[in-house]
Design goal:
Blueprint: E1 3-14, E2 17-28, E3 32-36, H1 43-51, E4 57-65, E5 68-69, H2 75-81, E6 83-86, E7 93-97, H3 98-112, H4 120-133, H5 138-142, E8 144-145, H6 151-165, E9 169-173, H7 181-193, E10 200-205, H8 210-213, E11 218-223, E12 226-231, H9 234-242, H10 245-251
Parallel strand pairs: 3-10, 3-11, 6-9, 9-10
Antiparallel strand pairs: 1-2, 1-4, 4-5, 7-8, 11-12
Helix pairs in contact: 2-3, 4-6, 6-7
This protein binds adenosine-5'-diphosphate and magnesium ion.
Length: about 250
C-alpha cells in the first residue's frame, strides 16, 4: 500500500510556544485514521499545519505528501494536490454566495492541475446531486458561505465541498462538535460515501461516538503535542472506558 502522508518528528510553535513536540504519523492510501486526544493536545494545530494555515512556525521535522515536501507549498497548491481540511469552526464569508465559492474553488483547483473548468450545467448537476444526498436545500447555496448556517449545516457544507473537490486526503477536525445525532448521522453518511481506495481520511475527535459512524482502520492517541499510542479501532473503545489521564501522565 502506497504511503500518502508522512509526518516526521514535527515540531510546531505558535507565538514562541511549542505546541507540537515531535509528532510522527504515517497514513497510507485508502486508510481512515482517527486522532483522539483531550482538548489542547494539539489536534487542530496539526490539521492547520497540514493545510497550511498561516500563523504557525514549523521549527523541526517534515511533512511529505505523495512524497513531496508539503511545507514548501502554498495553501492553494496543497488543496490542488488533494489536501482538504474540514475546519472545526468553519469560517463565514459574508458577501460570497456558497454556490460561487464552490465553483471558484473547484475551478481554480482544476486549473492548477491543468484540467479544464467544469461547464455550468455539469457543475450544477454535480452540486445538485451531492447537496441532495446531504439534505442541503438549494436555497442555502445562495446564501453567503456559512453565514447564518446552523452547526449541522456548516458541517454538511464541508462534506459538500469534500464531495465536489474529491481530495485524496480529507482531514475532519471535530466534525461531531455541535451536531445533534441526526445531523451527525447525515454528515457521517456523506463522509462514508467518500471512502475510496485512493482517498485517505484523518478523523479528529475527542469522543468515541463519531467512530461508531466513521469506523477507522487506525486510531492514534495524542497528548501534549505528540502521538503517544496507536492501535486498531478497539483503542477508541478502551479510551472511552479509561479516559485520557494515563496518556497525559505518560506524555508529561
Ligand atoms: P486541540 O485541537 O487538540 O484541542 P489545539 O491545537 O487547538 O488543540 O491547541 C493546542 C494548544 O495550542 C493549546 O494549548 C492552545 O491554547 C494552543 N494554541 C493553539 N492555537 C494558538 C494560538 N493561535 N495562539 C496561542 N496558543 C495557541
Ligand atoms: Mg481542536
Amino acid at each position: 500500500m502506497a504511503v500518502l502522508l508522512e509526518v516526521k518528528d514535527l515540531q510546531v510553535s505558535v507565538a514562541d510556544r511549542e505546541i507540537l513536540h515531535g509528532l510522527t504519523l504515517t497514513v497510507n492510501e485508502g486508510e481512515v485514521h482517527a486522532i483522539m486526544g483531550p482538548n489542547g493536545s494539539g489536534k487542530s494545530t496539526l490539521s492547520h499545519v497540514i493545510a497550511g494555515k498561516p500563523g504557525y512556525e514549523v521549527t523541526g521535522g517534515e511533512i511529505l505528501f505523495k512524497g513531496e515536501n508539503l511545507l514548501e507549498m502554498e495553501p492553494n497548491e496543497r488543496a490542488a494536490k488533494g489536501v482538504f481540511l474540514a475546519f472545526q469552526y468553519p469560517v463565514e464569508i459574508p458577501g460570497v454566495a456558497t454556490m460561487n465559492f464552490l465553483r471558484t474553488a473547484l475551478n481554480s483547483q482544476r486549473k492548477s492541475r491543468g484540467e479544464d473548468e467544469l461547464s455550468t450545467p455539469d457543475f450544477l448537476k454535480r452540486v445538485r446531486e451531492v447537496s441532495g444526498s446531504l439534505g442541503i436545500p438549494q436555497e442555502m447555496l445562495k446564501r453567503g458561505v456559512n453565514v447564518g448556517f446552523s452547526g449541522g449545516e456548516k458541517k454538511r457544507n464541508e462534506v459538500l465541498q469534500m464531495a465536489l473537490f474529491q481530495p485524496s486526503l480529507c482531514i475532519l477536525d471535530e466534525m461531531d462538535s455541535g451536531l445533534d445525532i441526526d445531523a451527525l448521522r447525515i454528515a457521517s453518511e456523506g463522509v462514508n460515501a467518500l471512502r475510496a481506495p485512493n482517498r485517505s481520511m484523518v478523523v479528529i475527535t475527542h469522543y468515541q461516538r463519531l467512530l461508531d459512524y466513521i469506523v477507522p482502520d487506525v486510531v492514534h492517541v495524542m497528548s501534549k503535542g505528540k502521538v503517544v499510542r496507536s492501535g486498531g479501532k478497539e483503542l477508541a473503545l478502551e479510551l472511552e472506558a479509561n479516559g485520557y489521564a494515563q496518556y497525559q501522565e505518560a506524555a508529561a
